[in-house]
Amino acid sequence: xxxxxxxxxxxxxxxxxxxxxxxxxxxxxxxxxxxxxxxxxxxxxxxxxxxxxxxxxxxxxxxxxxxxxxxxxxxxxxxxxxxxxxxxxxxx
Length: 92
What we know:
By secondary structure, the protein is an alpha+beta fold. The chain folds into two domains: 44 residues, no CATH class; 44 residues. The protein has three helices and three strands.
């Protein structure tokens, strides 16, 4: 049996505990680091729109003048996901 240490994608802490399962049955984890910005995470997301790298690309494409539909088509995600992510970024 091989035990793989799980690290938080935000703070790289190994102080991680299991935190239930998603609707798709994937394991959800919780970071116990109090200074971590991201407390809950899943190692392998089933939808590309949840990936932090895709969220960053949404913002970069919006700043470069790409439209919502263009961004959704290029990143292979829903236009609704693009709109919601841009709303989150504009409020903060």
